[in-house]
Specification:
The structure holds 2 protein chains of 2 kinds. Chain A is α/β, with parallel strands linked by helices. Chain A contains 4 helices and 5 strands, in the order ααβαβαβββ. By secondary structure, chain B is α+β, with helices and mostly antiparallel strands. The chains are: A alpha/beta, B alpha+beta. At the A-B interface, helix 1 and strand 1 of A face helix 7, helix 9, helix 11 and helix 13 of B.
């Protein structure tokens, strides 16, 4: 009967290993944040955005003229990683920093595949609608064309040596002067993460 | 007396009809393409079983049947009910002593069906297709994001199960005296590895580049992933190039994607085996195991425009998806089934010794009725998903060819259209639905 008992024990004993779940608030860029080797974590977005913004501001590529901020459009940010990511996690932080510093404003009325916010266009379509006080509608020629476009690419490179896995994420950005088509600022920031891989697979 | 009461209680827990026999009429209607009748049967069963251990699997069957019958909102309601119950089981502790004990004293079919990994992914995928049909693009994208998350979670879960499976395999190999359990292993013509369902990723990619306001670049991530998993089919290589150009701002002609859902997924049949144990007192146990049984043959699908034929590419072989899940789960199922059989043999022996002839009959009855494999599986899933993309012709007329069957369809106006074609058993009518993405 020994083997029968062994069988039963093997099937049931794991049930005794019951755990309890907990939840807590943590600092979004603190040491308690979860770190995954093959993924871009919150703290990685923050670090990359901070460093890229500092580089852009220090480069002097965007200078407000007579206190008037330049206008920026967001171009294509290519995702060459193996995971679904929201590139706004990077771009929004950079846009906010430029906006707060008074260097540049971002247009939401122009985008590669239509505007980011279609409201600017929608409100102009009310010009033919008598129900709206036409004096309250924006006049023609008020939308501002962008001076620069910000485009880039996020690249992932993985390497493995035994059980050690390494992921490298390169955040590349270019600022193009739309009058000349020249890239007036370019930067790349690397985030490299390393960890051991669990032994799985058939 | 004490043992008699215990056996009586256990027999009450055991239940009666297997899922295979429960679903006989339902599967008959479904295979014949009578989706209305199938939806009615599923709804009737859900009415009877909505609080039972089989609730999840019946809600899934109901959702799929209602969807094929064109009742998209009702279908989503059924899928939501399945989702709520799955979430309820997920919130409970992963391992429950009461649950394990029930499984040990009866069989695995008496435990609640908590939804397999691929069920969860397909549940969100069908909900997304329903929302697209209802014109609710944002809701569809939410479902596809959930499917993506479920898919990623399943990859991690599968990895853990493989480690556990190795351990279980070692345990039962030590406990039994050599029996051929390899026959239970399904034949996998294809193996997507840790990847759960490439079709879900394909649909997500299609919706991302054609519908989403942001995150559109992620479409290429998904397409590249499927391309590499499927061994680099030309259709996907071309799709990657096309989507890359579109995301770069290039104009594209009006496109029609035809999704062919063909055939039916495998079901589970019961195999009863006498398994010799390495024990002096209990030499053999009678145990019932599930075995996966594929249904029908793969059906090729084409689109004809004028004299030109376009072959649909296999994006997901559901036999492979179900087979992979079955194979990963099998060592744990075998171990638990053998443990239950050993426990029951020990109880039966005790009853025979203490209660004489009457006890012997009760023990025999107990062992016979509780030896039942868990045959529950989502039977309305298709055998395969194939996709074909064509430039929408000027007259918007397409001829759809699935095996020997032929249907004409006039595609809606729009820049990106999707036509969903569902086939059942050979000879049954095709179900055709379509919606505009862009």
């Amino acid at each position: 009967m020994k083997s029968g008992i062994k069988l039963i024990a093997a099937a049931v004993l794991p049930a005794l290993a019951l755990g309890c779940a907990t939840a807590k608030y943590i600092d979004h860029d603190g040491r308690d944040s979860v770190v995954n080797v093959g993924q871009i974590n919150t703290q990685d977005w923050i670090r990359a955005a901070d460093e890229l913004t500092q580089s852009l501001l220090l480069s002097g590529a965007i200078q407000s003229v007579a206190g008037k901020p330049k206008v920026l459009m967001i171009g294509r940010i290519k995702n060459n990683t193996t995971q679904h990511i929201d590139t706004d996690s990077l771009m929004k932080k950079i846009r906010v920093a430029l906006n707060k510093g008074g260097r540049a404003l971002t247009t939401t009325a122009v985008g590669l595949d239509g505007p980011e916010d279609a409201s600017s266009k929608a409100v102009r379509e009310l010009r033919a609608d008598d129900e709206f006080n036409q004096a309250t509608l924006p006049g023609k020629g008020n939308l501002v064309s962008p001076d620069y476009s910000l485009s880039g690419k996020i690249i992932q490179n993985d390497a493995r040596a035994g059980r050690i896995k390494q992921s490298e994420f390169a955040f590349q950005l270019s600022l193009t002067d739309l009058k000349t088509g020249l890239a007036v600022w370019e930067e790349e920031k690397l985030i490299v993460k390393q960890g051991s891989r669990a032994a799985v697979g058939w | 007396m004490r043992w008699g009461c215990l056996l009586g209680f256990v027999l009450l827990l055991t239940g009666c009809a297997s899922y295979e026999s429960q679903t006989g009429a339902f599967r008959g209607a479904w295979n014949g393409g009578s989706t209305g009748q199938a939806a009615q049967i599923a709804s009737r069963e859900v009415g009877k079983r909505s609080d039972s251990r089989d609730a999840v699997v019946w809600f899934l069957e109901q959702g799929a049947a209602l969807r094929s019958d064109g009742q998209f909102a009702a279908s989503n309601h059924a899928f939501e009910q399945a989702e709520k119950r799955i979430a309820f089981y997920d919130r409970q502790a992963k391992l429950r002593l009461s649950r394990e004990t029930t499984g040990l004293l009866t069989n695995l079919a008496t435990l609640p069906y908590e939804g397999r990994g691929y069920d969860r992914v397909m549940l969100n995928t069908y909900q997304a297709l329903n929302f697209l049909q209802l014109g609710q693009a944002e809701a569809a994208l939410v479902e596809l994001r959930q499917a993506h998350t479920a898919q990623d979670a399943e990859v991690v879960r599968n990895a853990r199960r493989i480690v556990a499976a190795r351990k279980s395999a070692g345990e039962y190999e030590r406990a039994i005296r050599g029996v051929q359990l390899d026959d239970l292993q399904p034949d996998l013509a294809l193996d997507y590895g840790a990847f759960v369902n490439p079709f879900t990723d394909f649909l997500h990619a299609l919706c991302l580049w054609s519908l989403a306001a942001d995150d559109r670049e992620n479409a290429l991530v998904s397409l590249r992933r499927i391309h590499s998993t499927l061994g680099g089919p030309g259709f996907l290589a071309e799709e990657i190039k096309r989507v890359d150009r579109i995301l770069g701002g290039a104009k594209h002609p009006d496109l029609t994607y035809v999704i062919f859902e063909t055939g039916v997924a495998p079901i589970r049949r019961e195999v009863r085996l006498d398994v010799p144990l390495r024990s002096e007192k209990v030499r053999y146990v009678a145990a019932a195991f599930p075995r996966l049984e594929p249904r029908g043959r793969p059906t090729p699908a084409h689109i004809a425009i004028g004299g030109e034929r376009h072959e649909a590419t296999l994006i997901c072989d559901m036999d492979a998806v179900v087979g992979r899940d079955f194979r990963t789960e099998l060592p744990a199922v075998v171990l638990r089934t053998l443990a239950a059989a050993a426990a029951k043999a020990a109880i039966a022996k005790k009853v025979r010794e203490e209660s004489g002839d009457l006890g012997a009959i009760a023990a025999l009855l107990y062992q016979a009725t509780t030896a039942q494999a868990d045959l529950r599986t989502w039977t309305t899933l298709p055998k395969a998903f194939r996709v074909c993309r064509v430039e929408t012709p000027g007259d918007r007329k397409l001829t759809l060819l699935v095996g020997p069957q032929k249907n004409e369809v006039t595609v809606n106006t729009g820049r990106v259209n999707v036509v969903c074609v569902k086939s059942f058993a050979p000879g049954a009518p095709l179900q055709i639905q379509q919606f505009r993405l862009k």
